[in-house]
Amino acid sequence: MNPQEREELLKPYLPSAPRLREASTKRKQHSNGTASGLGVRNVLKKQFYALSFALIHAIFSVYIRIRIACHAVYLRIVSVLYYHHHTPEYIQRDVQGLSRKPKHLSVILSLEEGGKRLDAKEKLISEVADIAAWCASAGIQMLSVYEKTGILKDEMQQSHREISSKLRNWFGKYQAPDLHLHSPNMPVVHPSYYSAPAHKGAGEYGIAIMLVSEEDGRESMVDLTKVLTVMAQKNKLSPADITSDVIDNELTSSVMAEPDLLISFAPYVDLQGYPPWQIRLTEIYCEQDNQSVEYQVFVNALRKYAQATFKLGK
Amino acid sequence: MSIKADANVQRWIATLPPIAWALRQARETLIGTLRQGPIPQHVAFEMDGNRRFAKNNHIETIEGHNMGFEALAKVLEVCYKCGVKVVTVYAFSIENFNRPKSEVSGLMKMAKLKLEQLCQHGELLDRYGAGIRVLGERALIPDDVLPFVDRAIEMTKHNTDAVLNICFPYTSRAEMTAAIKATVDEFSMPSEPPATPFSQARITETIRSKQPKRTDSSTSLREASPDPAAKSDVDDSVSSTTTLNPGSPRTEAKGKEKAIPFKDAESITVDSINSHMYTADCPPLDIFIRTSNVMRLSDFMLWQCHEDTHIFFLKCFWPEMDLWHFIPVLLEWQWRQKKEREGTSGRRLKTE
After folding, report:
1. Where are the alpha helices (DSSP H) in A87-194?
2. Over the stretch A262-278, which tens digit does the pLDDT of each residue have?
3. Which of A214, B31, B167, B282 could connect to B86 by a Cys-Cys bridge, CB 3.0–4.6 Å?
4. In terms of domains, do B54 and B159 share one?
5. DSSP labels for B61-89?
């Protein structure tokens, strides 16, 4: 193709030349003064646009409501058909055929109604416990839970008790996985009977939950920058030494590693301030129009993850 | 072959005067209509699927890339006409250098060609009123491509209505690293002491002359045994102790040398890092679109996809992207904006 041909190709998509545009606006201004013909036309045009905007949005609104309803019905039916009956074996069966599973799963949860209701936190903890049970059954040993406000990080001992008791409901008192509750910059909460790290190891049923909030996102990078700045001011490091490996290493060990799969239980993908560094190649799954934490979304996400082909830079 | 023939037939039909006219009118009407609602200020596209599209349709890879370029032209037209201020596209990742050498050189050749084309069509670009910026590691751009990059930027410099950010070669982690590095640089450069009529030396002198002998000896005694911990952390201890003590001139000189006024590291905020991002002067990212049904950010706009960014993963391949794929996204975004506004105002009403 020579330049002329390409110009021909693009011509239909181009706006009029700026000179022409200016000329036409000038003409319009003139005509506004002399004859109101074009002015009236402009007003009419505007009215027409406003009308069609209202119309299009009305139609779209109907469409989206139908879509939401369809998705809700579909999810209901599927979740009735494939209910897990609080039995780990059912979940194991569901994930058996998958070619690969994430080692580190991350979920985004949010407080209902901005946390105004009193039982909002309890609901959140019970959601975390459910997801933890699903993960433990599916053989995923690392779960990170992102909740924007960080309310889960308060009273981690109590959260640990509640999640553990729920896990015992699922697995039975003696088969329940060891739960380790982590949070950046906080001591790990182990089970009370947990003595040495090598006691059971991260055995078949051990599960680690990492609680992450907004302050572990951009804020933690700011904190890291502060530390690096102080070091540079003391001549302990030259800014040229700062590489992405250094930052990656720091953020991985002090906040968390990059998750393999991120599930958003919101109606659409909204990261809500999720740690930016860690989300580089994470597979993101979001069930369109879904409103709540459903087992079916979890399974669909795992299925989608197993299908996804992975290639970096290719 | 068939896709090419199809495209030709479609193009032929679309160029029939009445149909072309009707299509243009329909497009103009739609865009004019959508302009009535809220318009995103910053949209990012991850143009994925050129090669898969080519493979699926049994056409050459380069043809797929060409169709991708055409799709970009279409999408840019729609965006700018709708009133989007900044469009950011991911053209080439630093990771792409890991591809086979022949492919990288092929891609670079294409980049050169495209930029050359852009330069040839300089006046056409002006119609968009869009200034081109190239974001990324400049040092990694091959020498033979660099002049074209500079020329394209130079040619569109005067366009300030809108911005086209081309990320080339870019990864978000490299961007964040560069931003952190720049912030550290900024804060570890000795800052100019603020202009003031008061002289620190004079104050010190006055204090020293007024000090009784007793304190004098005690301070010098304290200084006589300097502890090693304090020595390594002098920058924190500032000039107060060192310059106020009337010790030997040697320590005084040392103190002055060490007390370089740094900007306080604690004053670093998200904004100071943000100001060193490539997109510092762009409005926050409203919409992120990735095509070809891949649900990953893949090292693109990680920092910018922070919150209030609506991420859309589309099923179509990038060459198929056009107005009709973009409009549902825009409509849904407008719808969510409306919902959000209603939600917040509703909540405010409830609390009041």
Report:
1. 88-96, 120-138, 156-171
2. 999 999 998 999 999 99
3. B282
4. yes
5. HHHHHHHHHHHHHHHHHHHHHHT--EEEE
Measured between beta carbons, which residues in chain B are less than 8 angstroms from residue A281?
A: 296-299
pLDDT at B303 over 50: yes
Q: What is the pLDDT of residue B236?
A: 42
What local confidence, expressed as pLDDT, does residue B156 receive? 84
In a domain, B20, yes or no: no
Burial A46-80 (b: 16+ CB within 10 A, else e): eeebeebbeebbeebeeebeeeeeebeeebeebee
Do B185 and B113 belong to one domain? Answer: no
Please tell me the predicted confidence (pLDDT) of residue B181. Answer: 92
Among candidate residues A221, A197, A193, the one with its CA nearest the CA of residue A279: A221
User: Taking CA B178 as the corner, what is the angle to CA B177 and CA B179, rounded to the nearest 5 degrees?
Assistant: 90
Return d(Cα B28, Cα A221) in angstroms, integer: 45
Specify the pairing of strand A179-183 against strand A186-189.
Answer: antiparallel
Number of structural domains in chain B: 2
Return the structure tokens found at A124: 């959140």
Between positions 5 and 44 of A, the ones with CB within 8 A of B are: 6-7, 9-10, 12-18
Is residue B96 annotated as a catalytic residue, yes or no? Answer: yes
Q: Which range is least confidently modeled, A80-84, B50-54, B157-161, B254-258?
A: B254-258
Specify whether B48 is catalytic. Answer: yes
Q: Six-digit token pair at A265? A: 């239980």
Same domain for B266 and B295, yes or no, is no
Question: What is the rounded average pLDDT of the residues A110-136?
Answer: 85
Q: CA of A242, closest CA in chain B: separation in Å?
A: 6
How many C-beta neighbours within 10 Å does residue B1 have? Answer: 8
pTM confidence score: 0.81
> Are the beta carbons of B311 and A239 separated by less than 8 Å?
no
Structure-token pair, residue B28: 């103009």
Q: Is residue B200 part of a domain?
A: no
Q: Mean of the per-residue pLDDT values for chain B?
A: 79
| B332-344 core/surface letters (b: 16 or more CB in 10 A; e: else) | bbbbbbeeeeeee
What class, spelled out in words, does domain A82-217+255-307 have in CATH? alpha beta
* Region class of B54: left (phi > 0), else alpha (psi between -120 and 50), else beta: alpha
| CA pair distance A286, B296, nearest whole angstrom | 11
Residue B155 three-state SS: helix
Q: Which of A49, A42, A44, A133 is nearest to A89 (CA)?
A: A133
> Which of B8, B48, B236, B271 does the annotation list as catalytic?
B48
Q: Is B329 part of any domain?
A: yes
Q: Which of residues 182-221 of A touch B (CB under 8 A)?
A: 217-219, 221
Give yes or no: residues B94 and B238 share one domain: no
Cα B183 to Cα B104: distance, rounded to the nearest angstrom: 32
Which range of A173-177, A308-312, B161-165, B199-203 scores highest in mean pLDDT? It is B161-165
**Contact between chains at B117 and A3 (C-beta distance less than 8 A):** yes
Q: Which domain holds residue B241?
A: 174-189+230-277
How far apart are the CA of B184 and the nearest CA of chain A, in angstroms?
Answer: 5
Query: When comparing pLDDT for A229 and A8, which is higher?
Result: A229
CATH number of the domain that B327 lies in? 3.40.1180.10
Which residue in chain B has the smallest CA separation from A53? Answer: B33
| Per-residue pLDDT tens digits for B81-133 | 899 999 999 988 888 888 778 777 877 887 888 788 777 766 666 777 888 88
